[in-house]
Amino acid sequence: MGNIDVLEKVQKLCTLALSEEDGEPTEEARTAAITATRLMKEHDLVIVPREQLEAAQKAINGATELRREAKKAKRDGMILGGVLGVMAGKQGLI
Length: 94
Known about the structure:
The protein has two domains: about 45 residues; about 45 residues. It contains three helices and two strands. Strands 1-2 form a two-stranded antiparallel sheet. It starts with a helix and ends with a helix. The relative contact order is 0.07.
């Protein structure tokens, strides 16, 4: 079972675990809660507040953008260096 499949199954089980009948959890709800807990433990799942997950995603996106900008700056610097080298050669400086 893939990670996404496990997450979807746990999510469905958690939804089922909240079901009630006459204000009381059903046996099916109890079983779903136990099964969800077992799956979470078996697959070493960690529950993280959405706010922290979004902050981590924002940091990753920022790092990815910085890396992209650094690559562009390096490429631009190499092009500029090449152009300056050609110009210096034409002027007899090198």
